[in-house]
Amino acid sequence: MLMAASAVICALAGSAGAQIPFAPCGEGNEFACGHLTVPLDPSGAVPGTLTLALRRHRAPVGEAHSAIIALAGGPGQPALGFAGEFAELLGPIAATRDLIVFDQRGIGLSHPLSCHAFENSSPYKSFGALIEACGSQLGPTRSLYTTADTVADIEAIRQAGGYEKLVLYGTSYGTKVAEAYAQAYPSHVEALVLDSVVTPNGPEPLERSTFEAIPRVLRQMCAAHACAHMTTNPTRDLARVLARMQHGPLKGRAFDGTGKPHTVSMAAPELAGVLLAGDFSRPLRAEFVTSIAAAARNDPAPLARLLQSGSSEGSHEDFDQPLYFATTCEEQDFPWNRSAAPKARVAQASAAAKALPATAFAPFNAATALQVSDVEGCAYWPYSSPPPAPDTAPFPAVPTLILSGTGDLRTPTSGALELAAQIPGAHLLVVPYTGHSVLGDEPTPCAREAMIAMFAGAAVKPCPTTPPPASLLPPALPPMRLGLVSPERGYHGLPGRTLSAIRLTFADLDRQLLLQLGSAEDLSAATVMHIGGLRAGWAAFGSTGLVLHGYSFVPGVSISGTLKLETADLQVEGSSDAHGKLQLGPHRALVGTLGGQHVDLPPNPSATAAIVGEDAQESSYRRAGGVGSSAAARELAGLLGAIQP
User: How far, rounded to the nearest angstrom, does the alpha carbon of residue 475 sit from its chain's CA centroid?
Assistant: First the structure.
């Protein structure tokens, strides 16, 4: 009888773990693919099911009794494409645990929501009308894609996988899901790793914590006299530019990748967009500080080029738009009556924003906060549920690591502090020089070492004080004429100024290539990067090297020609410079004549290090599909090492 009972128990245990039929994915043996059918409505009130797509990485040692659930951001960001990156980041804690990655309901391969309105927006006169149509097209089940529904799916995965407990790792919106699961199923939680947290009751509809953090982050950019060469107060520079924009958009001229000039209209929402995009790019935020300082001094060209290049667009996150609004609109407590008409909701939200003190958004204002929020879209959402009740549920006292980057504007450290106070014994690690998604962005291994220490039962140490990365230092203001450029050391007169201007031009080209490298979705051998000069011309980098056509950073100084790893053939032929030619000499120096004077400009290997370092950081899991070809990055680094003075 004992043997029979034992056999039954073993059979039950085996079937519990086999409810998710995993099979090799096909692209490799590291992950197995599986599917799990779950109720459309976890409460059972609405009939129907949907199927979740999963990836599982088995624990390399023994049979795992617990699993790590890795949660992407969003709402609306597919996670399966990040499975490899999750495994790399969480590797040290996955030695005795399975790793489960899944596309949350309504996105990716888990019955993605779709709206004809997003596929063809032309019939809609406003974004609000588009959102209203999308909600109607989704039908009455549009309210079944909230955080609580995903939490129920995670519990179904735990039960079907036969796991006793879960470690929940989340980044951005994924932290909100992890927190909600811990509150709903505390006895099934082994530990929490919460990276760039959204609080249980967040995000706040007007993103007040983001606006409150902007002056601090700008001051941080200029700490230790990093901006002494151009400004003493970057927030004041931003306020000056925003004050001019209150009378209408600021206009500046920018050159596209073919050298064609364009007039760029710049308004406050675009500036806020650049700052937020800087969460994923240190070079972008450094360039923003300099561009704002230049615009405050009546040189709008750097800011115009920054905006025209598309550097403010996107957030390196690929969201499913219908799911994003289905979750965001239903879940956030906007300052309006859900039963009111859309226009009345907008008026109520506007009144609530304007009733706040000006300091809540300074140096921006309430109007900008409304423009960059989801107010316009969600005001037209056809609600099918009441506003959410405040979340006051307690958290379990389990090992918890909360990670926050000091440069994160999407989920500022204030939210991490708030959450840490709610979780008994939580470890809060604030990581310097880091934006959104700490484990993928930190310039040191501080956060990774803290995670390993917590799971080993060791002390979590604070991050050491280190100098800021070179990519975080704002560059100097662009000269507005050649006469403001000091001659290169060892030279004098017009040739010396021209040589110094050439050095500045290549430094600018280096930064622009870095920005493109950071924003590119994919780089391959066929990729060609096109860059407009600040004052004129263009440059292009591809497999055949670097081509410049009248590329100008300093007015009156332009460079044309080609650069390869082995050769250089450059002509300096601007309207104000000392004309001449440069070639690649010994030790990769640029040598030649300017204004009849022999010149020799040695290279600076730090350019190579900067490129390689940024490529490594930008390849974090938050980037859909990675940052591109490492071979292309190495070729770019080698070329810049040759030409960067």
Answer: 22
